[in-house]
Amino acid sequence: MPRKKHRPRRLVADGRTYLWTVRHGHQVLEGGGCRKTLTLNSHPPGSGGLLRFVFDEGPGRYVSGFTTGSGEVGEVGAGALNLHEPGTVRVLLDAALAGGWQPQERGETKLDGWTFLAAAVAAGR
After folding, report:
1. To bridge 53 with a disulfide, which of 72, 89, 109, 113 should be the other Cys (CB 3.0-4.6 Å)?
2. Within a 10 A sphere around the Cβ of 115, how many other Cβ atoms?
């Protein structure tokens, strides 16, 4: 049976469970444009924080749409990622943890996903 499109997926990393989703949206300000957001939420609910990687379309940067795969984000000269791949999610999570994000802290943290793209591409995602 195929996976339901908007149902959160599960990722276990370093003994902690996360539920993650990828959403497509549009920027309200900054001239419009598409946006992809990868959200990780500590599970069970209430056990930690919410982490969002935001990828806003812009010059030299694209997010999936009409001509690309549904979870793809890319930057000219840096490469592309598929946010629907669990390995990509794990690399981005590891980068946030290395940068000081603490999953047990409650609240929401938004990160500019583009700052992690090149390292994730280099890691083979």
Report:
1. 113
2. 11
